[in-house]
Amino acid sequence: MTATSETVLEEGMIFSIEPGIYLPGRFGIRLEDIVVLRRDGPEVFSSLPRTVHLADG
After folding, report:
1. What is the model's pTM?
2. Apex CA 18: angle with CA 41 and CA 8, to 5°?
3. Sign of the C-alpha dihedral, residues 11, 4, 33, 48?
4. Would residue 36 count as lying in a domain?
5. Domain-located, residue 57
6. Residue 21's domain spans which residues?
7. Among positive and negative, which fits the CA dihedral 5, 9, 14, 17?
8. I need a surface site. Which of 23, 25, 32, 42 has the fewest CB within 10 A?
9. How many domains in the chain?
10. DSSP symbol at 32
């Protein structure tokens, strides 16, 4: 799925949402959530924490 996709989402479809950030020459990170589209809305299967931990040094 993209902003220009013409796919119509339907109940029962399963997909992943994978936002990421990439800093060339430094690092990159991507989060992945698995989602199923239910009649009453999305159900997210992932339960990843969204906290950031920075290493010293």
Report:
1. 0.62
2. 45
3. negative
4. yes
5. no
6. 1-48
7. positive
8. 25
9. 1
10. -
